[in-house]
Every structure is written in structure tokens, then in C-alpha cells.
Amino acid sequence: MHRVSLYWIVGLLILTGLSLAWLRHNQMQIPFKPGSDTGVWLIEARVSFTASQRPVLASLSIPKMPPGFRIFNEQAASPGYGFSIVGQEENRRAEWSRRTAEGSQTLYYKIQLTRHPEKTGKLHDPPASPDTVYWQPPEATAALAIIETAGATSSTPESLTREIIKILTTSEKEQNAALLLTEYRQEILLTRLLAEAGIPSRVVQGIFLEDGRRNQSLVPMVEVFTGNQWILFNPVTGQQGVPENFLVWHRGGPSLLDLSGGSSARVSFSMIFQSIPALEMARIQSSSNGFSFLSMHHLPLDQQGIFKLLLLIPMGALVVTFMRIIIGVRTSGTFMPVLIGMAFLQTSLVPGLIYFLAIVGTGLLLRSYLSYLNLLLVARIATIVIIVITLITLASLMAIRLGFHTGMPVTAFPLIIIAWTIERMSILWEEEGMREVMVQGTGSLVVALCAYAFMRQPIIAHLSFNFPELNLIIAALILLLGQYTGYRLFELHRFAAMKDRTP
């Protein structure tokens, strides 16, 4: 029963860790691999107009949840103007305002987007029935004729839309289509005809993304409600669905650009494709995500540096647990090798080894002298702590004087742990001899080097800091290792001679 409960806990820890990591990867776009890049479209809307010495208010429609894309950053560049984004519904608007302005004015709005295939942007709420369409008498006759012709060869809103587009775009247009196209733009005419047929539709404006394009205008499309979703149609080609690299910028409703206090308003678009580190993008958008409570990127930079080291300790603890339980390596102190391995991360390996051996060796010599003084344990440990601090200080000063810039990081060594290590090794030397001290000292260094080798791997440092929930999986593995009751690897070697003598 006890073992079953343990397995349930282990399974729960692994499932929770993996689920949280996967959700944060999907929602916050945090990469599982360090150094991976993400393609980003940077689109700039340039609004230009001539101000007429009056209060100016410019309002530009901007995208919200465009299908196939995810917005992760937006900003405006408009010196002298107040700027805000208003409207939380489907049609958001960027508004610039100024008490007075004169002459040529230019406003910029920039948005960064990434591809996101799961974001379809389909709206399932049924719209209101189309308003009554008013035609001139000849136009009404032509419109009805087109709808009857298209309706004869269609059975659904989608097929009716395609048939009407065919009639309007054929090279040899019939008289009815030619008559209506002289009065209405093609996308407007299509929405009027669909409304006449009782099908909700609206004009959509978007832009085809192409790297390095400048001074582009929006391309009109038509969205048709087919009963449970909106489907995009190209009114020129009849293509159904959102084309690749087509960004829906504005849907129906108010106009694309409204301006008061000026004239000759114009909006144009430029775009470039960028590759930015995926981790940098995750930092930018982490503040607006519900899973950001697990993100370390909100902490001050100095605290982030501390947590980068702290979150490596579980991996070091796993290495120590494996080396002691499965391999059978004896160490001086249970988790002292983990702290030594972390110190190596800051000092680098070779200087760290030299410092560690020098400090522990010198400390053992001085500790042997303290044995003759018959001090109480607390006083002896306190003296060793002061000796260790003095040795580290001297080592740092000497290293700096000699021009070794790794001198200061030697303070990363756990002072109290090293002091206790010196004390325990000294007692071990007195009770069991130098050989046992060498065995445990060497074992501690070997385990520390193994922990260091794992913790210095970029993939482990990346995962531990950006996905701290993965430590739940490490905890589960340690729980499983804690159930091991078999022989250790070194014990198999020790008892090999008995096996050879077995008849």
C-alpha cells in the first residue's frame, strides 16, 4: 500500500511537471531548446496628413486576434501626440490626439506578430440579419437576375458566394454584372448581393506579408457567415479561406482611418521579416499571459541571477542521489558535492579545483594543530570558519594581485560547509586513518565534478530557469531512487570474489 501511494505521488509529480511545461511552452512560446529563433513580422502603419491649426484626433483601426497570427508587441511613434489604444472588441483603434498642429504630420504604429496556426480567428456568434439593401430600379432587376442565376447552381452560402464571384469576374461580363460594377466596387457589390440573398457578409481589409515591401495598401476581401463561422473569400479570384501570409487588419464596422483637424489623410504599410531569439520574445509577452506567475523574468535582474543558480540544485541533488545510491560513491557530507559543483560554475573548473584543494588541505593542517588545544566543538568549528574565511580572502587577494580575475568568485564556495567538511575529515582521519579521508575526499570531488558537468550544460540551465516546474519530475525521480534496495555498483565489484568461490 505504501509503495502504491508512492507511485501515485511520482506519477502526479511527473504529470504536473510535464503538463505545466507544455502549457507554458504553448501559451508563452518559451522554447525548449536554448538559442532557437522565431520568425517575426514587423509591420509599420504610416499615417500622413496635413493639419490645419485645429485640435487633431486621428483614429486608425488596428488588428485584434488576426487569424493565423499572434500579436506579441505593439507600439507607436508620434512625437508631440498623445497616444492610446481604445476599444476591446473586435475592432480596436489606435488614437493620436494633439491640442493643435499645423502642416504635414506623420504618425507611426508598429506591430510585431508571429505565425500561430492554431489561432483561426473564427467567430461563431451569429451576426444580425443583413440590413435591407436599396437599389435603383434598374440595379434591383440586375441584382435579382444575378442572384437567381447563381442560386440555380449553388446550395450553400459558400457555393452561392463562389457562383456570384464567377459572374462578377468573368472576362465577358453579362449586362447585369457590367451595370452594377459601374456603380459599386467589386467587394461592396458582393456584400450587397449576399445581403439581398439574406446571407450576412462584411468587407475585410488585410495585407499580404512580403519581406521588405514598402508603401503597401490594404487589400479588400469579403467574409461570409456560413451558419457557424465566418469564411474569407477573395472577391477577385474566388479563393476560399485565409491565404498564406495574409494578415487581416480591419473588419467591417467603422472606417479604417478617421481624422479630424486635418485633411489629405493617407495610410500606408511597410513590413520586414525578422528572426529574434524565441526566449526574448517570451520575455516580452510573459507579462500578459496567465502562466506568467511561474516566470522568473518578472524578477529583478540580480534576483534572476540568484535563481539561475538555485534552480540548478535539484539537478545536482539528483546526481548525488544517483551516485550514492546506485553507484555507491562515498562522499564527505551528503550534499556538499552539489555546493562545490555550483562553486565550480562560478570559478570555472581548474581554478575552482585548485582553490578547493588548497583551502581544504591548509584547513586540515591547521585543524590538526587545534586538536592539541582540546577546544569544545563549537569553538573549534568557529575557529575553522574564521580560518576558511581568512584563507579564501588571502587566495582572492593573491589571485587579483597576480592578475587572475577568477579570484573574487572563489567567495562562492560554501564557507560553513567547507568548515564542516574540514572538521569531519579531521575526525575521520583520527578515527579511521588517512585512507578513508582520501576515499571520501576523492568521492566528493568526483560527485562534484559529475554535478558540475550536468549543471553547466546549456540545455539544463535553460530548462531549469525557464521551466522551474520540471523540478517536480526531478523530485519524482529522486523518490524512485529512494526505493532502491539492491546492491550498489561498487558492492558488486567488492563481492565478485565471493561469487568466484561459489561451487
Automatic annotation (TrEMBL):
<dbReference type="Pfam" id="PF14402">
    <property type="entry name" value="7TM_transglut"/>
</dbReference>
<feature type="domain" description="7 transmembrane helices usually fused to an inactive transglutaminase">
    <location>
        <begin position="255"/>
        <end position="498"/>
    </location>
</feature>
<feature type="domain" description="Inactive transglutaminase fused to 7 transmembrane helices">
    <location>
        <begin position="24"/>
        <end position="183"/>
    </location>
</feature>
<feature type="transmembrane region" description="Helical">
    <location>
        <begin position="437"/>
        <end position="455"/>
    </location>
</feature>
<feature type="transmembrane region" description="Helical">
    <location>
        <begin position="306"/>
        <end position="327"/>
    </location>
</feature>
<keyword id="KW-0812">Transmembrane</keyword>
<dbReference type="InterPro" id="IPR025838">
    <property type="entry name" value="Transglut_i_TM"/>
</dbReference>
<protein>
    <submittedName>
        <fullName>UUP1 family membrane protein</fullName>
    </submittedName>
</protein>
<feature type="transmembrane region" description="Helical">
    <location>
        <begin position="6"/>
        <end position="23"/>
    </location>
</feature>
<dbReference type="Pfam" id="PF14400">
    <property type="entry name" value="Transglut_i_TM"/>
</dbReference>
<feature type="transmembrane region" description="Helical">
    <location>
        <begin position="470"/>
        <end position="490"/>
    </location>
</feature>
<dbReference type="InterPro" id="IPR025840">
    <property type="entry name" value="7TM_transglut"/>
</dbReference>
<feature type="transmembrane region" description="Helical">
    <location>
        <begin position="406"/>
        <end position="425"/>
    </location>
</feature>
<keyword id="KW-0472">Membrane</keyword>
<feature type="transmembrane region" description="Helical">
    <location>
        <begin position="339"/>
        <end position="365"/>
    </location>
</feature>
<feature type="transmembrane region" description="Helical">
    <location>
        <begin position="377"/>
        <end position="400"/>
    </location>
</feature>
<keyword id="KW-1133">Transmembrane helix</keyword>
